[in-house]
Design goal:
By secondary structure, the protein is α+β, with helices and mostly antiparallel strands. It has a five-stranded mixed sheet with strand order 5-13-12-11-10, sandwiched between helices. Strands 14-15-17-16 form a four-stranded antiparallel sheet. Strands 20-21-22 form a three-stranded antiparallel sheet, with no helix packed on it. Helix 9 packs parallel to helix 11 and helix 14 crosses helix 16. The longest helix has about 45 residues. The protein is globular, with a radius of gyration of 29 Å. It comes from Cryoendolithus antarcticus. It holds the Pfam family Aminotran_1_2. InterPro entries: Aminotransferase_I/II_large (IPR004839), Class-I_PLP-dep_aminotransf (IPR050859), PyrdxlP-dep_Trfase (IPR015424), PyrdxlP-dep_Trfase_major (IPR015421).
Length: about 600
Amino acid sequence: MAPSASIDVLPESDTSAFTVPGRLTIQSVAKRRAAEGRLVAGVAALADVERFKGRTSHLHKPKARRWDHRFSTESKTRLPSSLKGAARYLKNEGMISLGGGLPSSRYFPFEQLSARVPDAGHFDGPSRCSTLHAGKNDLAEGKSDFDISTAFNYGQGYGAAQFLRWIIEHTEIVHSPPYQDWSCTMTIGSTSAIDMGLRMFCERGDWILSEEFTFPTAVEAAAPMGIRVAGVKMDEGGLLPSALDEVLTNWDVYARCGPKPFVLYTVPTGQNPTGSTQSAQRRREIYAVARKHDLIIMEDEPYYFLQMQPYTGPDASPIPPPTSHQEFLDSLVPSYLSMDTDGRVMRLDSFSKVIAPGARVGWITASEQIVDRYRQHADVSTQGPSGMSQLLMYKLLEEQWGHTGYLDWLLHIRMEYTERRDVLLDACESYVPREIVSWVPPMAGMFHWFKVDYRKHPAYPRKSRADIEEEIFHAIIGHGTLLMKGSWFSPDGQGEGDDMYFRATYAATPLEDIQEGVRRLGEAFREVFAIDSVVQGNGNGIAAVQMKALETGLANIHVNGYINGHANGQAKDFGTGYTSGYGNGYSNGGHFDGYTNGHTNGYLSAMA
């Protein structure tokens, strides 16, 4: 992702040459702005996106494909807001407006707003903070380019030009979309963007694609529109390209009662709920499938900047953080947007996970054609984000931190989330029975995904998968902690033979409570699966095994491998194989008879 260090010259003909501009960096933002001249944008001002992008900075890139064949009837019939379109005439010198229905800011009961925020690079405590101020008439008085009079009035659907410029620059610094006519427009958060995106592309009766476990709100937003969601198989690296291709290649419109889908909704980084992160190679392979089947990719990335340091284990030294802004940017997995040569990606970004969800400010990046469709919808529905939120975000990100300070903040929360994730994983290694539960350390996001081998439950298969899941869920609650059932995240629902999962989060719980919560979780698993905790031997080396009372005819008994003998015997691992289908399971000085596999009235008795 590193920008080119030199400027390449590509021949256009035998007699001319075209200079390819370098990629926008933090250091070159000031130069571009100086070339633009001062931004003056009043109430409901139109935004000159091409100016913010640098008018000649992307001319060497190809243009995006056209997507007329993918827009819904609703989107095709939307027209621009006629009243907001008239705002372009306010730029005319000497114009006196008697047309716009804008209230006078004289009657806004706000004279000044202030907020204390940390100084850039000093995020560990309240000692290094500054107070941001926003006055009613700062723009007219030359104190700021954005003020209460402007922000608190009506605006365009894509948001205030002042803050949109910052968003466009940030998007280019991080992703540098590889086609010419990309654009951004603000949203009131990704949930709303999902809703609008579905309306833009889908008709009632359509299907869309997603991971086999996905964000429930996306499924619930689609359902009232008559849009169904088909889950695509995953592994620990996220959505499987081969499975995506197979679903699309073998789509049966009659069996599915709907046309072949052309929208893929995916959360590629720190996926909710699985915590999986698609590698760069995985994303390239999925993008190739998207090109093959002409898909629109809705890239929902609220956790993109919560990519963490690799997990090294309970006793290993942590990996040092990036030492520069460029090293930090280079460490991020490339986005779909950064590899999108067709303009088929609609990327959803949000400040909800990295600043505050209550701000309700986000944005999409896509081809100008797609962004224009979105803006026209927003102009007659949600409008832009709250002007109050935009003003606060502008003061923080533009005037206080700038692009450099924001990257400092993102690196700070990266390390904070790394610590939280590591505390949870360390506790899992100590307390959660590995013979029943498995997991893959998450690389990003807020979530940890437990896979539970429910087939080792004492009552399986007499007890159904759904009943075992319910038993585990309530046992966890009974031990004083809460996880979410994995089945709640499956758009297709789960059947008897499917794997079982539970989702945990480490995002907001105090560190000491994370440890205690995982300890309780481990106890709940041991209780449900009839596994004892760490068992202490007596002076003669006899391991006393305390088991949960067993039902008649139960089949598979599994005992945790932490049996500590004394005097005459050392601790010996007593694994799952010793009680399923074996005549005698030995545990270093003691043995079990009356094993249960295949016996109608099996029971378990410990003998010295």
